[in-house]
Backbone:
């Protein structure tokens, strides 16, 4: 499958405006927001004071505002406003159609080559759109934001395959990409679900920084997101054992594959649990 697409409109998008927008988000986010320049973005986490995950978010600097691609927009908007005291910052929903285009032929189809989290303004099928390179699915993936995507969908149907929800989840599980609420929730921290690249160890203070830095410095990570090859059907939330002790909590299931939070002592690929085998991420088909 060299070109596929699916609708991501149900995910959230927030616009943050005001002269203090970048400074405030820099003080809230795990990654550096202040150095961003127009046309560039970054992936970051927003956490509670205890270092637990509120959201994994793509922050895009559009010059006049920041556009946030969020998996948990209502909770994230409330978090930002909670820490907006005297700052000149406003948060609102951004209404747009969002279509993910992925696969080895995605960049050629879109006519653009971007670095991860970079974005560009394009004209596709006669419509002005913004294209953002996002987390990898089928090799490369891009989010296309458009006011109307009827013509774009028609063009995509001529060239690629439209993925249904089960196929999307299958790709996500095999790629090892965490999502709200299965892996990203206020019971997990960024290290546990593999969001290392969304954490800056040099940017200074942010909400939850003390806990997140301590886990890294003192190697206190107890579990980590891993893939499982299942020997029998299980449901999300199932607790798997090894030698009579709990070794993993299943978070997402897709066929005979699953994502799970696995004890660090059991992370080696090939480790046998009761009912599953640990495999590395991303998973091979």
Residues:
């Amino acid at each position: 499958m060299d070109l596929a697409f699916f609708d991501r409109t149900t995910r959230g998008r927030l616009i943050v405006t005001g002269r203090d927008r970048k400074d405030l988000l820099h003080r809230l986010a795990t990654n550096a927001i202040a150095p961003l320049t127009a046309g560039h973005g970054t992936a970051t986490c927003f956490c509670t004071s205890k270092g637990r995950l509120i959201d994994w978010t793509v922050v895009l600097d559009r010059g006049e505002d920041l556009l946030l691609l969020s998996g948990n927009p209502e909770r994230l908007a409330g978090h930002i406003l909670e820490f907006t005291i005297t700052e000149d910052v406003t948060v609102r929903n951004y209404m747009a159609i969002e279509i993910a285009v992925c696969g080895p032929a995605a960049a050629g189809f879109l006519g653009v080559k971007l670095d991860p989290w970079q974005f560009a303004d394009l004209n596709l099928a006669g419509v002005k759109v913004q294209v953002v390179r996002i987390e990898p699915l089928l090799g490369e993936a891009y989010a296309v934001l458009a006011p109307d995507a009827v013509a774009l969908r028609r063009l995509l149907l001529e060239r690629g395959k439209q993925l249904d929800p089960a196929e999307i989840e299958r790709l996500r599980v095999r790629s090892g990409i965490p999502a709200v609420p299965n892996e990203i929730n206020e019971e997990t921290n960024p290290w546990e679900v593999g969001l290392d690249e969304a954490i800056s160890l040099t940017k200074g203070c942010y909400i939850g920084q003390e806990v997140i830095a301590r886990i890294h410095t003192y190697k206190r990570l107890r579990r980590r997101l891993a893939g499982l090859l299942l020997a029998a059907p299980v449901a999300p939330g199932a607790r798997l054992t090894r030698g009579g002790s709990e070794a993993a909590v299943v978070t997402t299931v897709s066929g005979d594959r699953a994502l799970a939070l696995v004890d660090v002592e059991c992370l080696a690929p090939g480790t046998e649990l009761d009912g599953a085998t640990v495999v590395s991420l991303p998973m091979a088909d």
Q: What stands out?
A: The first strand starts at residue 4 and ends at 7. The domain at 1-163 is CATH 3.30.1360.120 (Gyrase A; domain 2). The helical segments are 21-28, 73-82, 106-110, 150-159, 165-175, 209-217.
